[in-house]
Amino acid sequence: MRPSLPKGVRDFLPEQVAKRNFIFDTIRSVFIKYGFRPIETPVMEKLSTLTGKYGEEGDRLLFKVLNNGDYLKKADPSALEAKDSTKLIPSISKRGLRYDLTVPFARFVVQHQNEIAFPFKRYQIQPVWRADSPQKGRYQEFYQCDVDVVGSDSLMYEAELVRIYDEVFAALNVPVKIKVSNRKVLAGMAEAAGISDQFMEMTMAIDKLDKIGEQGVRNEMGNRGIDAIAIDKVMTILEVKGLEELEPYFKDSEIGLKGIEELRTFHQYFDLEEAKNEVSFDITLARGLNYYTGCIFEVAAKGVEIGSIGGGGRYDDLTGVFGMKGVSGVGVSFGAERIYDVMQELDLFPKKDRSALEILLIAFDAPTHLKAFEWVGALRKAGIRADLYPTPAKLKKQMKYADASKVPFVGLLGGQELENSTISLKNMETGAQQNINLEDLINKFRP
RNA sequence: GUGUGUAUAGCUCAGUUGGUUAGAGCGCCGGAUUGUGGUUCCGGAGGUCGCCAGUUCAAAUCUGGUUACGCACCCCA
């Protein structure tokens, strides 16, 4: 049979894994520094935990796991008869793959509320699955790096999370613009335009501003049934540059003013230290997810057309659906896959691979192979990433292997070297070669 | 869910109006070279042309179906 992968998933070669780990390690180290603790949740959740949390579209994109055993025996006969897949699902599938990390986290918090201390700060770096049709930069399996705080509505955390963004992207050397807004400001806009009941339609249209332009947003709102006068009003407010300018529009909108106040409090905390990246209020920032209720964030890479590489915000009642009311959360997510693409395009990955082999030993015959195995053990003991070709095969073959493996150094061990207790150390890039004893060899790599 | 494209060697791809034994480059194996890779030369292995039908004297090539994967839309990271 011809080996291949199902659509939307990928293998990673060692060099890719090294690069991906560089991103994950950088993110993780910043999370830890800010006092966040790791948790892990299972690949599978109960389907009942997942369904209905991501909208109708989301339900369709959930991967469902078929029940074990003779699952058709318990299948809903009427749904089976009618060939109604949607209705059939609950009777043949009780589990699904997680679609994001936020809903499982909400479940986790409710379930373990007596074992954790609030405010609870957690981070989670795990893959998620979506049955979306894949295309460039979009996969059915991808990693999310989430960091959230639950159990406090202090705006200090908003400032802290934006600082994490700032610090991570500075550490990765990726120049970004961090956009900040507040869902209450958007609610104020809807109120000012007299379309509070069409808040969702409005935000979804605004969310596309970057992509479809001003006229596109007007059309989108029109298509979604918002009247022309309200559209004009919304577009006028979108022109606003700062919070002061915005305030007059919200004279009669309590929620709008509350949004402005929250943003000001956020800035009081955040502005105590200068940011390394551009951080700015962006009134056109909307974020599609409708569970956000307060501050919202989005990160865009500078100089690369790729969309957002991170986003997040405040949600007042995430655990509510699991029966735990009034617990506020705020969190942000890093789009690791897209960060990878940006770093690849801008050539930002470190040249030196800290997980790659440093030296390969090559032996000429059986006695030297035995000696070389002793050497490779000594090198490893000294913390040097070393390996030995498994047989004293033809030099050409061994050298070719070294070349293909991109090992920077090769240590050759033949009869002469055995006699002098040295090896011939060859620099694979320059071709230069020198005889060296074990002690000097170790010092060369770990001085 | 909608639209659209692709499928030939391990990989990337040629393959003429349908016509002998389906090719190239790279990779792989062996040799030139029994103590030296990345350059060169020589030789070799490797294919159910995605799958199933149909048209035809004859199909990788034309037609229909099917499966897989890609790209775009919706949506999203």
| Class derived from helix and strand content | alpha+beta
CATH architecture of the largest domain: 2-Layer Sandwich
User: Could you give me the name of the CATH homologous superfamily of the largest domain?
Assistant: Bira Bifunctional Protein, Domain 2
Quaternary = single chain
What level of helicity do the residues show? 40-55%
Q: What is the terminal-to-terminal distance?
A: 51 Å
In total, the number of strands is 16
Largest sheet strand order: 1-5-6-11-10-9-7-8
Radius of gyration from CA coordinates: 28 Å
**How many helices does DSSP assign?**
18
Low-confidence spans: none
Largest sheet: 8 strands, mixed
The CATH topology of the largest domain is BirA Bifunctional Protein, domain 2
